[in-house]
Amino acid sequence: MGLSKGEVNMIVDTLRVFVTVAEQRHFSKAAELLNMSQPGVSQHIRNMENELGTKLMLRSPKQVKLTEEGTILYRKAKQILSLYEEAKQQIHLLHEVVTGSIQIGASFTIGEYILPRLLAKFAGQYPEVDLQLTIGNTEEIVAGIRSNDLDLALVEGTVEEHPDLIITPYMQDEMIVVAARNHPLAAAAALEPADLANQNWIIREIGSGTRAFSDHFLQANGLTPKRSYVFNSSQGVKEAVSAGLGIAVLSRLAVRKELGNGELCELAVSGPAMKRELSVIRNRQGSLTLAAEMFQREVQERQQAAEWTCDLPELADHL
After folding, report:
1. Which residues form the HTH lysR-type domain (predicted)?
2. Alpha-carbon distances of 90 from 60, 78, 93, 292, 294, rounded to whole Å
3. I want to staple 218 with a disulfide (CB 3.0 to 4.6 A). Which of 71, 223, 242, 243 is the partner?
4. Which pTM was predicted?
């Protein structure tokens, strides 16, 4: 005998409550997120424990901790909920409706200078999809994918290969050395990398893809900064460079507006163009909802149509 619609919904709801409590490690926080009463949340957990005949959670006044059995259920419950959502999306597609939510992660350069325009276009095409964006440095975003807190992420620079990750490059990003207009090096028609020695450098924090590229550039050219100043965003780096605090390696995407209005200038350093990969990453163990699949397809189609580069001047005007 099959399950009724109400019974299916009850099972899904109970699993969703269990996963939320497990992730929040607190009943009251989970109740708040789920818009439920705390006794209602507790009842769902008791029902689940009675059904399985085992203790799933260890409760204390400060937090909730999963038992070994609870950990097993948590992993499977995440998969079940993901598959259920995927099935709903595929059914909705039969009626030409893409719904659901996507947790998208992005490293700073992409999140601040590329993704807003893409999200705006995607939201216009699929208004029923709830888009939630998390911006952090590359290391933080990769961690979010591995923990399944994020469905998809767009990151800059080299991502270390890992069995949990599917890494798909989608475009190249050019890195350049920038300085304030009145910097002593700004007037030089041509510079060798060695000319950048003994300079103050403005760099990003450890874990950033931009920081990794800067470190590689300095090491590859045998450069030791006179002094380093660390900022945790590209915007902070740009402001410091503009104020004359030092020079920096940044994405051309991030400084297009400042180069255009003369606030910053590109130093004419000899050598091949400095490129790095931008990639889409996802967790190999998870299954994408239809909405997430459509978003990833949009990223790939824009890359193939070269819209990323042709839209950049207009994009910069909107930042």
Report:
1. 10-67
2. 41, 18, 5, 12, 11
3. 223
4. 0.63
